[in-house]
Amino acid sequence: MDNEPLCTEIADEYVREVMTNSHTAESDQNTDRKRFSSDDSDVEDTSGAFRERKKSKSCFERDGESSEGFNAQFMKFANSMQDSFKKLNMRIDDLEDNLEKKIGRISQSINAKIEESVKNRVTEEVTIMKAEISENIKTIEHKIENLKMTREPVDQNVESSRTKNIVIKNLLLCQAEVNDSNLVVNTVDRLVSEVLGLKNIKITHASRIQTRENNNRINPIVATVENIDQKQRIMKAKPGLKKTQDFYRVYIEHDLPQDVRNSNYNLMNILKIVGGDREYRVVGGRITRHVTSTYTRRTDVHRNAKRGSGGVGILVNSEILGLYDATVLDDSKEDILWLKLSHKTLRNSDLCICACYVPPSDSTRAGGVDTFFNDLLQQVYCFQNQGILYMAGDFNARCGDEQDFIAGVDDIPGRDIIDTTSNLYGDKLIDFLTSCNLCMLNGRVYGEHGSNNFTCVSKRGKSVVDYAITTHEQLSNCKSCSVYLMSDLINL
Description:
It is a single chain. By secondary structure, the chain is an alpha+beta fold. It is built from twelve helices and 14 strands. The protein has helices at 5-20, 22-29, 31-37, 40-162, 175-179, 184-195, 228-237, 258-274, 318-323, 369-383, 424-435, 486-491, and strands at 165-169, 203-208, 221-225, 251-254, 280-283, 286-289, 324-330, 336-343, 351-357, 388-394, 438-440, 456-458, 461-463, 466-471. It is elongated.
């Protein structure tokens, strides 16, 4: 406490006042006198002044103690306030944390309630929908059962009627049928009784099926006999049609359901693709092996065959070879040969020539005519862009008065017909030509030196079985087409 600056200054001031006091000076001058007089009043004055100063010093000391206490109290208050602020901040942080946790719990609770509510609502809706669907399914099943019960007698009647049906193809219209289309029964009855020679066969119903194609083809007939025994008699006698002159193209078949016909058709296509149609056949929806098989290869021809037949070749003039380069395009098929003539100088002048041969139906090499035309059709599509296409060969096909184009669609002129007889191969050839937009040059292109004639002349008669063929687009570019008989060649 005595070392504080304030107390030192008070002491110094007290000393100066004492030293400068007049009483002190007089006391110094009259020291001896006072001492001798021993005057106590001055001493008392001096003691009083000292006591006053001491008293003043004690006041200052007490004031210093009060200031120090105030500072201590102030520091205590400041520390208390600081602690309060810290506690307040901690409380605020705790409140914030608790608030976030509480909000999180409330949010989770709300989400859980919403999810549960939605789940319950969806469950209710799904339950209602399931009930409705189940009810609808029951209704549909009930209707299906009723429909089956209604359909079964109809199907049984149809199936029962189908077992007594026969399908007749390529049977010409008789005069009575021309005048009245309802008299198809008379046409079938004449075929059965007069041609097949069957008696006591009753045709209960017959009608011609109208096909989608309007190509002047003969529509097939679906006829119904009285019972199964009569149908079996007709099916046993139908091979006799092949021995007749006027009805050898007529076919009698079973009336098969649509699904069975589709299945047989698909199986036949599979056999054609794998190349087994000459060894196997489709019977009753099953693939069975032929009892006897014939093959088109020369090495497989029986040694007792009357003569060798088949094989094709193309003879090219040496003058042509001076202008064109000859290249074999395809010789994979024994009876089909494709040759390309590439012009040596001119572009877009290449020729694509095909020579082919179809063995006759009574030949030992007779195979599948459908396979032949399918192979030929695929090769036409493959090589049609190799050059200008021409085709020639012996098809053993008599087309009669059948047109090789679709009337009203293809704009090409008709042909002069000298052979009015037709056969199965002719029908196949016509179908092939109309499928790939090809046409015959026989009887259609003459020019200045062209001629139309029979291509086969023998003791049995004359016929047109060899044809020259080109595309519809090239028909106008063909100047002439001539048929030379052997006698004409000898006389040259």
